[in-house]
Amino acid sequence: DVFKALSNPNRLRMFLHLATCCVPGTVGSFDAEAGVSACVGDLGRDLKIVPSTVSHHIKELHRAGLIRMERRGQKIECWVDPVMLRGLARFFHKPLEE
Amino acid sequence: DVFKALSNPNRLRMFLHLATCCVPGTVGSFDAEAGVSACVGDLGRDLKIVPSTVSHHIKELHRAGLIRMERRGQKIECWVDPVMLRGLARFFHKPLEE
DNA sequence: AAATATATTCGAAAGTATTCGAACTATCGA
DNA sequence: TCGATAGTTCGAATACTTTCGAATATATTT
């Protein structure tokens, strides 16, 4: 579940970090011009969370459909799924439509 | 925290029930023409949750700022806070703006 | 093949959440 | 003021979450 995934403080931090560090519309750090990184290790370094915990939380965020992942050599790049983001925005808009 | 409040299945059900049963812009069941109800007991009856549990969850939703409450005689009316709803919609929109 | 860098899985400890029933408080109506 | 209706608080049982370190797996480089 999406909200369960975002209910943990560290997972929310990770999600927000990915949402803000990654240029919208690009796919993680492999748009060379963007110059942003979003691999599992980077998240742990930036947010001071040990790798095994990052890995666990990433799995939850992925399971909830909030982030996408792709292996790039040794690293695994992560980025927020824009489709899900749009879906959530609409979810909270809906009840207000008259 | 808002997402923590919505992370529980029963709380999410309660929130969605309130979001859909109550006419947007009105304040619970005391807009007579609306004809909808949203008191604590109704929620329990509709969603098959015992009163003490409803009460506990309502408190959480209220604490998170998701719902508003007001005593109307013996009953306590609940409704989703439209301001918070708009805030959440904007929250998920933000990262997509370029 | 060995060494290095990166990420995952596992098990365990500590903390937190969920749910219920029983007892309690609050409000209204006769 | 008594009884009925509506909600809350409390305590306890059960279940789930979070986090870490150690061991394991995967990928690159030499």
Question: Can you describe this structure in just a few lines?
Answer:
The structure is a homodimer of 98-residue chains. With 98 residues, chain A is an alpha+beta fold.
Characteristic key phrases:
alpha+beta; two-stranded antiparallel sheet; homodimer; DNA-binding; 5 helices
What does this structure look like?
The structure is a homodimer of 98-residue chains. The first copy, chain A, has 98 residues and is an alpha+beta fold. The first copy, chain A, contains five helices and two strands. Chain A has a two-stranded antiparallel sheet. In chain A, a hairpin with a 2-residue loop joins strand 1 and strand 2. About 11% of the residues of chain A have low confidence. At the A-B interface, helix 1, helix 2 and helix 5 of A face helix 1, helix 2 and helix 5 of B. The first copy, chain A, binds a DNA duplex (30 and 30 nucleotides) through helix 4.
Record the SSE blueprint:
Two copies of one chain form a homodimer.
Chain A: H1 2-6, H2 9-21, H3 40-47, H4 51-63, E1 67-72, E2 75-80, H5 82-93
The structure holds a DNA duplex (30 and 30 nucleotides).
| Mean pLDDT level of chain A | 84
Number of helices of chain A: 5
* Computed CA radius of gyration of chain A, to the nearest angstrom: 14 Å
Oligomer: homodimer
Q: Name the biggest interface.
A: A-B, 24 and 24 residues
Distance between the termini of chain A: 27 Å
Order of helices and strands of chain A: HHHHEEH
Q: Biggest sheet of chain A: strands, sense, closure?
A: 2 strands, antiparallel
Helical fraction of chain A: 40-55%
Shape of chain A: globular
Unreliable spans of chain A are 25-35
Structural class of chain A: alpha+beta
Task: Please provide the count of β strands of chain A.
Answer: 2
Could you give the order of strands across the largest sheet of chain A? 1-2
Strand content of chain A: 5-15%
